[in-house]
């Protein structure tokens, strides 16, 4: 019976060993299950956070698209206002050119009228024109012929002086208008 008792002891030892292994496996399984629950909870939390972030991102994209549309509209309005200001500036410059042309015509008419009148003393910037004194020391005491010659002599520099001033003024105004229009042929010069 010693052999049978030894076998029994050996079988009991193996059972104890198997129980210990079984208990160890159960503890390990419980730990893994607990760890799986924690990981599943973390995964669900991460999914929720990712979905919330994606929803927020989609909202931001929609907002950016809306703002982009507003910016494009604002830029289009600004460009339209700039275009209108350029057109207004061109119109204003054309009005100035027309007024200058009218002033030139009026000046030419005035100068033609002065040729017919008795010459008088006049000083213009850069020109000094005074009546020519007659032999008696008084202005205008000449014959008809000498008065006509004196008028030609005195009015010619006066006319040239005024024309030079008008050219400078027209050149200045034309350069402003041409820089706005390019070489536009619509300007009245």
| Share in helix | over 70%
The count of β-strands is 2
H and E string: HEEH
C-alpha-based Rg, rounded: 54 Å
Report the major sheet.
Answer: 2 strands, antiparallel
Low-confidence stretches: 126-149, 178-189
Q: Give me the oligomer status.
A: single chain
For the biggest β-sheet, the strand order reads 1-2
**Termini, distance in Å?**
142 Å
Strand content: under 5%
Mean pLDDT: 77
What structural category do the secondary elements indicate? mainly alpha
Give the overall shape.
rod-shaped
Number of helical stretches of at least 4 residues: 2
Question: Can you describe this structure in just a few lines?
Answer:
Helices cover 81% and strands 3% of the residues. With 189 residues, the chain is mainly alpha-helical. Helix 1 (2-116) runs antiparallel to helix 2.
